[in-house]
Amino acid sequence: MSKKIILSGIQPSGNLCIGNYLGALKQWENLQNEYESIFLVVDLHALTIDQIPSELRNRCLSFVAQYVACGINPDKSKIVMQSHVSSHTELMWVLNCFTYMGELNRMTQFKDKSKNTKNINAGLYTYPVLMASDILLYQADLVPVGADQKQHLELARDIAIRFNNKYSETFKVPEPYISKNGSRIMSLQNPESKMSKSDKNLNNIISLLDDPKTIKKKINKSVTDSGSEIIYDEIKKPGLSNLISIYHSLSLEPINTIEEKYVGKLYSDFKNDLSDLIIELLNPINSEYQKIMDDKNYLFDILKEGSDYARYKSNKTLSKVYRKVGLVKNK
Ligand code: TRP
């Protein structure tokens, strides 16, 4: 039997951070051994927010290099730049015609994003349809995403079911794979909100490309709470609890073992050790990243291989869809 397919993607905006690593990339690295894997850099989605072209261009390549540096192995997985494969936008048009405005009006991410910007464009509104197209084109079985993407995935499933019911089985109905770990990594200065790669305040996040000095500085500055005991209590000590969560995710030590280890110790002792753990994780990623960025040919080869594969695979679905809805084939 052929392997099941997983597909996921990250929008190239902001700086990939340890939240993305723990919540996504680390899972992808494991999943690529069991599944046929497709990982997208969703550059077209990035256009829904204001971008500076030269920065976006660099960031797209940098994201590919960071995927690889984090262990996404191009021999096992396909890494695909969304805009390199035109079937994403082609299928999106068809799916737009099978998505109700009422459904898009209910998307909480659209509501949140439009609160914080003057640029409420139609792309931001139909963003979830492009995401559905990313997924359905490849007949993905499983889609690893953070909890905040669950609603978008539900929509993709609804669209797939609706289309299948009307025209006979066409799309695989994808299952979400919601990672528990990492989606709970919170901002360092404001532990009520998620650590987000798009955060303008860089003190809130540990970027995958931060150097050791910056990491130490950010962890030292991170908010902790009054009191001096190192115990996990999300309500009374949200800041410290977030740091303990990060420690736990990196060391894999159970929370209570960590608490026991730091009985009678200072916040600063704990923060120093946590910085060391993060540095230990990011050091090899950083040197690998530098090597890859110095070899642009290698980067473009990865993308070429990804898009060749993706075009072949996605065109099969797209032609089926065009045929089923009644479009005439070009000779
Ligand atoms: N919307 C997703 C996010 O912000 C990114 C994304 C786009 C995605 N297309 C996808 C994730 C397809 C999984 C599958 O995280």
Identify the notable features of this structure and list them briefly:
3-stranded parallel β-sheet; two-stranded parallel ribbon; 331 residues; mainly alpha; 8% strand
Note down, in words, how this protein is organized.
The protein is mainly α. It contains 13 helices and five strands. The protein has helices at residues 18-31, 43-46, 53-69, 87-96, 101-105, 108-115, 122-136, 150-167, 212-221, 238-251, 255-261, 267-293, 296-325; strands at 5-10, 36-41, 77-81, 142-145, 175-178. A three-stranded parallel sheet has the order 1-2-3. Strands 4-5 form a two-stranded parallel ribbon. The two termini are 34 Å apart. The model has no long low-confidence stretch (mean pLDDT 95). The structure holds tryptophan. The site of tryptophan has 14 residues, from β1, α7 and β4.
What hetero molecules are in the model? tryptophan
Task: Report the mean per-residue pLDDT as an integer.
Answer: 95
Q: How are the strands of the largest sheet arranged?
A: 1-2-3
Give the class from helix and strand content and strand pairing.
mainly alpha
Number of helices in the DSSP assignment: 13
What is the total tally of β strands? 5
pLDDT < 50 stretches: none
Major sheet: size, sense and barrel closure? 3 strands, parallel
Q: What is the end-to-end distance?
A: 34 Å
Write down the secondary-structure element order. Answer: EHEHHEHHHHEHEHHHHH
